[in-house]
Write a structure and sequence with these properties.
This protein has about 160 residues and is mostly helical. The protein is built from 5 helices and 3 strands, in the order αααβαββα. The chain is elongated, with a radius of gyration of 20 Å.
Length: about 160
Amino acid sequence: MMKYIAIFILSFIFWILLTFSFSISNIVVGIAAALVTSFVFGKYFLKHVRPFLQIQRYYWLIIYLFIFTWECIKANFDVAYRVLHPAMPIKPGIVKVKLGLKTNIAKTILANSITMTPGTISVDIVGDEIYVHWIYISTDNVEEYSQKIAGRFEKYIKKIFE
């Protein structure tokens, strides 16, 4: 029963975000669409609903979104500097980053966050390691570059998804 409620809440929030209208008719249609969605698809999704209902995870999600936005802004300036610099100071390569995440969803969110940050692209996840193409490998120390690439996101993702 809880997973149907969770799907209903997610569907309704998604509807409101899509339409961004708070009129009575829009809310009624959103509730109807969320009910249909939860009844049709509820049995296929969300095997563990309890973490979804923990409010502190939403707090960490908001903090993570600010951290992610800040890191993207910094990375944009870094890539712009490297592109516009006459010597084009790049030192590209693929590095193996050690992960402290256990669940597949957390690893996937981290890989997507790394890819969406300019200058890095997630190539593959193998076990507890992720391979990342990095535009400028600044160090050969595994702990240092793991912290530079994944550390800024990993602790927040762990609090949200694990």
